[in-house]
Amino acid sequence: MSARVEGFDFDGYLASRRSWVEEALERLCSSRPKRVPSRLWSAMVYSLTAGGKRLRPVLCLMAAEAFGLEGQRVMPLALAFEMIHTASLIHDDLPCMDDDDLRRGKPTNHVVFGEAMALLAGDALLALAFESAIEGLMANHFSGELISLAVMSLAKATGPSGICGGQSMDMGFEDMGQLGPDRRVMEVARSKTGVLIASSLEGGAIMAGADEDALSNVRGYGMALGKAFQVADDILDVTGKVEEIGKSVGKDQAQGKVTFVAVHGLQGAREILEETSGEAKEWAAKLPRPDMFCAMVDKLMRRTS
Amino acid sequence: MSARVEGFDFDGYLASRRSWVEEALERLCSSRPKRVPSRLWSAMVYSLTAGGKRLRPVLCLMAAEAFGLEGQRVMPLALAFEMIHTASLIHDDLPCMDDDDLRRGKPTNHVVFGEAMALLAGDALLALAFESAIEGLMANHFSGELISLAVMSLAKATGPSGICGGQSMDMGFEDMGQLGPDRRVMEVARSKTGVLIASSLEGGAIMAGADEDALSNVRGYGMALGKAFQVADDILDVTGKVEEIGKSVGKDQAQGKVTFVAVHGLQGAREILEETSGEAKEWAAKLPRPDMFCAMVDKLMRRTS
What we know:
The structure is a homodimer.
Chain A: E1 4-5, E2 8-9, H1 10-30, H2 38-48, H3 55-66, H4 75-93, E3 102-103, E4 106-107, H5 109-113, H6 115-139, H7 144-158, H8 163-170, H9 181-207, H10 212-239, H11 242-245, H12 251-254, H13 260-284, H14 290-302
């Protein structure tokens, strides 16, 4: 069933922007930059082209377009979000972390290239994200001020108050005893998933020249969408099939991770998905093109039904 | 013996700038940023405050000052270079990499915090470098254009054509069969050490508004200085005492790494140190304050005698 909102073919739009991202990734990966050693490059390209929904770069394009910018102009920034996301997956999969050997239906990076190379490939993708975002946005004639703001947001979402902090909590390294399990699982979702998703939308809006009020609404939408996405992911971890979700099923459960399903039960998690999705739609109403942003929420919810 | 060049007390200057850096690092580390989990922050702070020469941030300040800028203004960028350097050391020391348990005279990060946390602390420092550099430079009223250029240089030096690429070669992951050992060791030194040192000088000069010709000379000096530094380091690995160099002696040798000493012998390495130092001084002559930049070369050479 195609999602048509007020005559707008959202599924078609999504497919088109996803193919833009895939094409841009292919262009990037097909020519190894000068001075980059070939095996390291292979390891980076392996994970970057291993598929996935390309959610973050698509959201970056969406936000830029909703605020009136030609989407292709922010592609260097959009790809940077995918690079950061990919780097975090490579490192999360390492034996000393979640020790996963399957990701997006393929052997994980360290299974193919070894632990040390996977570590380096993650580091290299992390740094390349910043390098290529700045270089590409400068080439596309954006002002240094806008570039600085968007790249700072990306860095913040990546670092200790974002993904890295979330992973440290998710691994059980942090003393969160003062928080109940319901607050803990929400805090992990916020920093591990929400912040980067919010930042990808914010980055697109920044480059389109959105003002501070608008950016605040974009972030609100992004944080709610990101949490909803994490709840949906936790539900899929127990209800999905391996060929559908492309990674080991029941893994979170087996590792005793604090997921929404573990804390609230399957039915409880579905209710939280309803709540966070509703919250995201309230924020969407404050954005330009609310139809598009609402359709994205619906799309995400349908994954779990 | 104090190094006085034309009446300029270089040792005093160096000590002063090093203490600036230490003070700024202490300020940074003493207040955990909002939303950063405490154990992750402890792991980051542990390695960031574990001592070291603070060569890269000092070079960043030096270049800024030589080109007429008040040094403290570029401190956020200077600290970013130290964060990147520290992140690379934490990851290099991991068991899957060089498996080192001693660094700067203290147990390495993973020995104290475990492998997974050390991995995360490195990632977090990497991202924090970009975040705090942009945030701090914006707060110091630099233009977005200059910030973008300096941060792009930092990212390039960190990524696959810089440190990460160098480490991949150093680990023996890359097929460098077409290059003789002398070219290989130089290529590793260039990307693993030279590029970040050059970038730290370039970053300071960029923020001071140096023009493209001047930046090219700064990079030339930095690359030569970086190579000389690596040669000196290799020499110290075999001639130094553990209490002097703060890490395991003879480790490179024991691991069969392609060092300047392994390839050229101790005497040969000393000759290459003379050559690269001479090269660095030739570049120094083209910079403002050549006395200061030459004194830095001499300082570095004295480490090995």
